[in-house]
Amino acid sequence: MSYSVGQVAGFAQVTVRTLHHYDDIGLLVPGGRSHAGHRRYSDADLDRLQQILFYRELGFPLEEVAALLDDPDADPREHLRRQHELLTARIEKLRRMAAAVEHAMEARTMGIDLTPEERFEVFGDSDPEQYADEVRERWGNTEAYRQSQRRTASYTKEDWQRLNARQDDIHRRMAALLDSGAPAGSEAAMDVAEEHRRFIGDSYYDCGHEMHTCLGEMYVADERFTAMYDGIRPGLAVYMRDAIVANAARHAS
Predict the structure, then answer these.
(1) Is the Cβ–Cβ distance between 225 and 237 less than 8 Å?
(2) Cα–Cα distances in Å, from 1 out to 21, 40, 44, 46, 52?
(3) Which bin fits 71, alpha (ψ -120 to 50), beta or left (φ > 0)?
(4) Are the CB atoms for 81 and 110 separated by under 8 Å?
(5) Which phi and psi angles does 62 have, rounded to 5°?
(6) What distance lies between CA 140 and its chain's CA centroid?
(7) 53 — phi, psi (to 5°)?
(8) Whole-angstrom Cα distance, residue 50 to residue 244?
(9) What is the pLDDT along the chain (253 residues), one digit of tens a residue?
(10) CA-wise closest residue to 38 among 13, 3, 1
(11) What pTM does this model have?
(12) Beta bridge partners of residue 39, listed in sequence order
């Protein structure tokens, strides 16, 4: 089975020009040619292209990609092991970035008055101001945004540390319930969801059950929130959303 350059470009979501360039520099030379001299790619060529694109996604220059793939002593299993390590590191970085989004989306950046040293102490290497512009653009005209600005303007480093600890505790207990097999609609899970809602209301802005349900949906719809919650425990984003929805329904009845 062989494929034309156009077919391969479509499979891999790259341009034909990119494939021509890879051929020209010897990085991906197609295994065959048609009678008319057109490039034809084999399944082995597609496997190599997949490896190339993986390393490129991680930021490796083409010269280093070629050196990695053409190493005569390289074991295919070693490539998989290396890729697993690189992906694990990327996932951890994304998880930290998602945690920073959590700070911003729930209005933690509104009015923060901390020195750079204090900010690092509270939030680690996640910049809580990174998404402030997005927060202002999406919610700047809402009462919740204005209320959060007023409340957080006077928060000290110790206040932020206390809030972080309280939220982390809520997340840990919700993850423990998920681990235990308790349904998201169980009384225990709904109670933790209610505590989460009250935490937001106590700390940032008035959060009724309808608004809390909207937040729960955002935890699943926004991949940054999903990455943050699932970084704590796989499946936690959906479980958290479902517990929030069940809790809102309980209080509506």
Answers:
(1) yes
(2) 23, 9, 10, 11, 21
(3) beta
(4) no
(5) -60, -35
(6) 24
(7) -65, -35
(8) 40
(9) 889 999 999 989 899 999 999 999 999 999 999 889 899 999 999 989 988 888 887 777 888 888 888 877 766 677 667 777 877 877 777 777 676 656 555 544 444 555 656 655 555 555 555 445 554 555 546 677 677 777 777 777 788 888 888 999 999 999 999 999 999 999 999 999 999 999 998 888 888 898 899 889 988 988 888 888 998 999 999 999 999 999 999 988 5
(10) 3
(11) 0.51
(12) 33
* Dihedral (Cα; 143, 145, 146, 152), 10-degree rounding: 140
Residue indicated by tokens 């010897």: 26
Q: What are phi and psi of 164, to 5 degrees?
A: -60, -45
Return the C-alpha torsion angle 12, 15, 17, 22, nearest 10: -30
Angle, helices 5-12 vs 43-57, to 10°: value is: 40
Measure CA 187 to chain center: 29
DSSP state of 25: T
For residue 159, what are its two tokens?
Answer: 């206040």
One-letter identity of residue 57: E
